UniProtKB/TrEMBL annotation:
GO terms for molecular function: ATP binding. Keywords: ATP-binding, Nucleotide-binding, Transport. SUPFAM superfamilies: P-loop containing nucleoside triphosphate hydrolases. This is ABC transporter ATP-binding protein. Residues 2-236 form the ABC transporter domain. Transmembrane segments: none annotated. The keyword Cell cycle does not apply. The lineage of its organism: Bacteria, Bacillati, Bacillota, Bacilli, Bacillales. Pfam families: ABC_tran. The keyword Signal does not apply.
Length: 238
């Protein structure tokens, strides 16, 4: 479902002509199969978010090739990437990234609007989705009127509303209390079992890692297992 071949990434910072190059990812080779839940773990600064942003096309690798759902995405234009995302990817974030001037309903509805789906069908889908994540009664509320757990549910509704085959999540439970965390994790497991949704979850939380089929560890921008084996990738399984 996701394949990274020889991915290197560096950021350039500073003024033009005086740039400093920060190498962040080194020779990343990895695959995520359809229906897998993969956890990516590693210290802060090890490159986890950068790796996920490469999978979502928000940044382009300095070198190497990425395939998502069979498509070589490294060569897509920005416009093609936008359509590709709508068709294939859902996102979950630690900071829920809701739009404060829009109600819960309107936030969850956004992907449907972007896809050009008609009003009647949007209404039905959004209410079903809000129902499913347990915040239907707050449809007309603004994010500022909702608790953190409720905001995350709205955010999850938005990320799942187009039924994406792949969900990329950067510390999705990072600002949730343990009840809300358990509920989100069990929702992820159900989606994975019922629909075969593939998940890539960045986390430093053991409870999150415990629902993963497989854990990939990053250290200083390298896959730790690649370190141990001198470059030949051996997945840790459990
Ligand atoms: P993690 O998610 O594991 O904490 P990140 O992928 O966010 O790690 O960051 C890895 C390294 O890349 C860090 O040293 C960070 O400072 C650097 N970095 C991340 N994004 C940028 C950016 N846009 N510009 C410059 N450096 C960045
Ligand atoms: Mg991060």
């Amino acid at each position: 479902m996701i394949e990274m071949n020889r991915i290197n990434h560096q950021f350039a910072i500073g003024k033009k002509g005086k740039e400093r190059v920060i190498p962040v990812l080194h020779d990343i080779d990895m695959q995520v199969k359809q229906g897998e839940i993969v956890a990516i773990v590693g210290r802060s600064g090890s490159g986890k978010s950068t790796l996920l942003n490469l999978m979502s096309g928000y940044i382009r690798p300095t070198s190497g090739e990425i395939r998502v759902a069979g498509q070589a995405v490294t060569s897509l234009s920005e416009g093609e990437w936008a359509n590709f995302r709508l068709a294939h990817l859902g996102f979950m974030f630690q900071s829920f990234q809701l739009i404060p001037s829009m109600t819960a309903f309107e936030n969850a509805e956004l992907p449907l609007v972007l896809k050009g789906i008609g009003l009647a069908q949007r209404k039905k889908k959004v209410m079903e989705m809000l129902e499913q994540v347990g915040v239907a009664e707050y449809a007309g509320h603004y994010p500022g009127e909702l608790s953190g757990g409720q905001q995350q549910r709205v955010s999850v509704a938005r990320s799942l509303i187009l039924n994406p085959p792949i969900v990329l999540a950067d510390e999705p439970t990072g600002s949730l209390d343990s009840d809300n965390e358990s509920q989100l994790l069990s929702m992820i497991q159900h989606l994975n079992q019922d629909r075969g949704t593939t998940f890539v979850l960045i986390t430093h939380d053991e409870q999150v890692a415990s629902i993963a089929h497989r854990t990939i560890t990053l250290k200083d921008g390298r896959l730790l297992n690649a370190y141990a084996t001198g470059g030949t990738l051996v997945y840790e399984t459990h």
